[in-house]
Amino acid sequence: MKYFYERVLEPILIPLVALGVIAFGAVNVSRLFLATAHGDRAVIVATLISVLILAGAIVATSLEKIDRGVMLGGAVVVGLALSVAGLIAEEVDLDYIADHDKDPSGEGFTSEIEIVAIDIDFPVKQVEAANGGGIKVNLVNEGAGLHNFVVEGLEETTKVEAAGGATASEVIALDPGDYIFYCDVPGHRAAGMEGNLTVVEGEGPAEGGAGAGEVVTVPAEDITFPVKEFAAPAGEVAFEYVNNGAIFHNLVVEGFEDDMLVEANGGETGRGSLALEPGVYTLYCAIPGHRSAGMEGTLTVS
Q1: Do domains 102-213 and 215-302 have the same CATH topology?
Q2: Which among 54, 96, 221, 262 could disulfide-bond with 241, CB atoms 3.0 to 4.6 Å apart, if both were Cys?
Q3: Is 0.70 surpassed by the pTM of this model?
């Protein structure tokens, strides 16, 4: 039995346990240091954890031989510390989101845009909005980590932040012009979380709704619509079809296939418009097999 444990079982368990410990530590440490930007508690705990790990490493290297029991005890202490740190980081993040996830219902705004974030990318890179009474930014975080939306040069007044799986909304003010938006979490912008926002002159504030100048931006990937629900005011609806995939896709509105067909090659953007009355419509890619694979969404016109 001893031979089996030392020669077979132990060589298999050691790398598996090590992998689990590394993954556990990486997740909790990353959550902790991301949370340091949101609260003093996280800063203090992050410092203590860093000192604890450093002290343990110094003690370990000063010993001629590390007893297995000491090593196991140290691993348990570090694991408990990381567990507590992860819980504190999560609480700090939730507190921050609760303080900053404002409900702008009832506030005046001219247009409404939806920014979808995934790990780690903005699927839609080109967005258009109208200003006059403000722009409502809905940040839909479909990823697992924390993401935010900021406008370059106006980070203090335009930041919208959402935890993984959450949605946050803010009303911001921007003059007409072209802007760059990005996620300012370290490393995310360089990885692709950046896009362009064009602001056009609006017709004045609207109460609780999207207003003039709104464009329905439909992102496409191979072969799915990462965003499934869209909204627009009744009348002439402008469509911007952003093909983030590698192959050709098109966009039609069910029942109006002969009235509008927007096409875009891989990496390109197609545009079109269609007059629609209030109701719920289905958008899809008409290339055979693409709709059934997931290239379908819903447009609510009000």
Answers
A1: yes
A2: 262
A3: no
